[in-house]
């Protein structure tokens, strides 16, 4: 199985409050332009052009693919210029400036983008000069150029922020891996010390006590002396067995569990939320560790490929299995991917790990809306005695760090 994190499902976007506010403002401005237009025929023409301006913005921002979005933006700018000339007292300048703000996002950096912004700025300045009857109206073109320039700077700043956020997720993943490796190394050191000092000392003590017991029996020592010696030898033997068991437990690498998902989501350097429903069951240590690692990788990939999107982690327990879904909302409008790439084997590794625990993995575009969803299904070993949890949303506690909007993020394993 190959990793398909960059599938087209991540390109689908949903409307936000900001989008709806912008659309409402555009409709209001077009309505005022219709009112300000002279004559019934002109009003009808301005109304039609207003619909074209709104349609162009919708096409450019939501419907057309990124490489064709420029056509919708050009439609908005052209209709805005026409409304400005037909209704000088209206607000045709609004779609022109809105289009100028979006145009740099639809054209790759280079001479073509510069020429396009220059044409819009000059055209806007000429339109204002015509309706004002003054050459100084050409200065209005500076406003269009300034807005476009600010858009370019904001896009560059946003891209750097997204890349920093994705890299932070990678750094956090590496930090957790190193922290776990250091803990394993320290446990190994303690185990060696216990084996070399405590276990050997107890073994030697046991041998000496057994020798003393033999000598005491040969010399005809009374039971008042041999009895305590027998008990001491037995305690020494038990101590040796317990020391060996402790050494074995220390040498075994500690495993994460589903109970650690709260801390994982809480450490995500972005907007993430955990939701738990149902009565928690008991997973085997290997299954719990596999679930933790799978969620860790899914969060990391959300930071890479849907940077800036809120991420939802839903854990649903029932009598036979636990279902875990990690879903993002796709890239926010006008945003590009962080550019941080994984090795391409993360989904395959996730599937293998969950498969070894007896579970399954499904990954792909979210069927209920934009974004990407990873779903895990793992069988429950036995019902837990813990009280049932309600399904209320809860935002986990977070440590300090950048991007703490509501959660982005968690320690992650790169893919």
TrEMBL record:
Do you know which InterPro entries this protein is assigned to?
HATPase_C_sf, HATPase_dom, Sensor_HK_TwoCompSys, Sig_transdc_His_kin_sub3_dim/P
Q: EC?
A: 2.7.13.3
Origin: domain of life: Bacteria
The Signal transduction histidine kinase subgroup 3 dimerisation and phosphoacceptor domain covers: 186-253
Please list every transmembrane segment annotated in the UniProt record, as residue ranges: 20-38, 44-60, 69-88, 94-112, 119-148
Give the GO molecular function terms: kinase activity
Composition bias (Gly residues) maps to: 400-415
- Pfam families recorded for this chain? HATPase_c, HisKA_3
Enzyme class, UniProt record, top EC level: transferase
Protein name (record):
histidine kinase
Record organism? Actinacidiphila polyblastidii
């Amino acid at each position: 199985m190959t990793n398909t994190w960059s599938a087209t499902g991540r390109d689908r976007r949903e409307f936000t409050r900001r989008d709806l506010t912008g659309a409402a403002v555009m409709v209001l401005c077009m309505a005022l332009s219709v009112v300000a237009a002279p004559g019934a025929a002109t009003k009808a023409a301005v109304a039609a052009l207003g619909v074209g301006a709104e349609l162009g913005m919708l096409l450019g921002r939501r419907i057309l693919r990124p490489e064709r979005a420029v056509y919708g933006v050009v439609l908005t700018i052209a209709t805005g210029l026409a409304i400005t000339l037909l209704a000088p007292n209206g607000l045709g300048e609004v779609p022109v400036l809105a289009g100028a703000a979006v145009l740099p996002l639809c054209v790759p950096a280079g001479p073509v983008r510069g020429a396009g912004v220059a044409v819009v700025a000059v055209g806007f300045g000429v339109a204002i000069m015509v309706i004002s009857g003054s050459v100084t109206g050409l200065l209005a073109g500076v406003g269009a150029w300034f807005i476009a320039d600010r858009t370019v700077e904001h896009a560059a700043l946003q891209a750097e922020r997204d890349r920093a956020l994705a890299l932070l997720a990678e750094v956090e993943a590496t930090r957790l891996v190193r922290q776990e490796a250091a803990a394993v190394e320290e446990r190994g050191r303690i185990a060696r010390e216990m084996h070399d000092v405590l276990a050997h000392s107890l073994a030697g003590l046991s041998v000496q006590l057994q020798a003393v017991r033999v000598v005491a029996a040969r010399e005809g020592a009374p039971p008042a002396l041999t009895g305590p010696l027998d008990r001491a030898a037995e305690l020494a033997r038990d101590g040796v067995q317990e020391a060996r068991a402790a050494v074995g437990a220390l040498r075994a690498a500690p495993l994460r569990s589903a109970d650690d998902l709260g801390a994982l989501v809480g450490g995500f350097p972005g907007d993430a939320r955990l939701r738990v429903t149902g009565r928690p069951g008991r997973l085997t240590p290997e299954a719990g560790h596999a679930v933790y690692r799978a969620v860790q990788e899914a969060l990391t990939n959300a930071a890479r490929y849907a940077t800036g999107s809120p991420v939802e982690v839903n854990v649903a327990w029932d009598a036979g299995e636990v279902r875990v879904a990690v879903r993002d909302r796709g890239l926010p409008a006008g945003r590009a991917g962080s550019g941080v790439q994984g090795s391409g084997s993360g989904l395959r590794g996730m599937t293998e790990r969950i498969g070894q625990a007896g579970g399954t993995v499904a990954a792909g575009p979210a069927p209920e809306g934009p974004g990407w969803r990873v779903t895990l299904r793992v069988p429950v070993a036995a019902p837990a005695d813990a009280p049932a949890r309600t399904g209320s949303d809860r935002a986990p506690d977070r440590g300090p760090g950048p991007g703490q909007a509501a959660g982005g993020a968690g320690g992650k394993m790169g893919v």
